[in-house]
Amino acid sequence: MRTQLVRRSAAVVAGVALAVGGVGVAGALQANATPDTTRITSAVTAKSLTIKSDKTTAKAWSKVSLTGKTTGIAKNTTVQVQRLETGKWVNFPATTKVTSTSTYSVWVKSGRVGVNKFRVVAAGTGSAAVAVNITK
After folding, report:
1. 3-state helix, strand, coil in the chain (%, to 5)
2. How many other CB atoms are found less than 10 A from the CB of residue 96?
3. How many domains does the chain have?
4. What whole-number distance in Å separates Cα of residue 103 and Cα of residue 52?
5. Do 67 and 130 meet the contact criterion of CB atoms below 8 Å apart?
6. Which one of 57, 66, 68, 71 is at 20 to 30 Å from 99 when CA atoms are compared?
7. What is the H or E stretch that residue 17 is in?
8. Do 68 and 33 fall into the same domain?
9. Phi, psi at 90, each rounded to 5°
10. 42 inside domain
11. Residues 33 and 56 placed together within one structural domain of the fold
12. Can you say whether residue 17 is alpha, beta or left, with left for phi > 0 and alpha for psi between -120 and 50 degrees?
């Protein structure tokens, strides 16, 4: 009777882990395992974006290439460039898609003279900022 209860408990725990976490049970469940010795873990890949500019200084309206790598973000997900304007991140008219190698590449042109801070956002995650000094 106890063995049957343990098996059912283990099956329920495994089913809940699959349904809630969508990940599964780490390791194999043994028929004689008790609930207090059964370990359930879930692996969640953190989403992240990096950004790099090919120039730190550029003339107004010249192309500046922004590239980077992604982690935990699906292929073909839209990557949106944003620029910091009066303390707020505003969408910049430049987008691209995450590639099959988890990278992206996009270029921007700005006529706003001075330091322009850019970042990219995708799948609810933002990168750090990169600064480009735009000159006349």
Report:
1. 15, 40, 40
2. 19
3. 2
4. 12
5. no
6. 57
7. helix 2-21
8. no
9. -120, 135
10. no
11. no
12. alpha
Q: Is 19 within a domain? A: yes
Report the distance separating Cα 36 and Cα 16, nearest Å. Answer: 16
Tens-level pLDDT at each residue, the chain (136 residues)? 545 544 454 454 444 444 444 444 444 444 454 555 555 545 667 999 999 999 999 999 999 999 999 999 999 999 999 999 999 999 999 999 999 999 999 999 999 999 999 999 999 999 999 999 999 9
Alpha-carbon distance of 58 to 78, in angstroms, equals 26
Does residue 43 belong to any structural domain of this protein?
no
The closest of 75, 136, 134, 89 to 110, measured between CA atoms, is: 134
Rounded Cα gap, residues 11 and 91, in angstroms: 48
Asked if 30 and 67 sit in the same domain, the reply is no
Domain that holds residue 15: 2-37
Q: What's the Cα-to-Cα distance from 79 to each of 61, 107, 117, 134, rounded to whole Å?
A: 21, 12, 16, 23
C-alpha–C-alpha distance, residues 120 and 57, integer Å: 19
Whether residue 30 is found in the same domain as residue 57: no
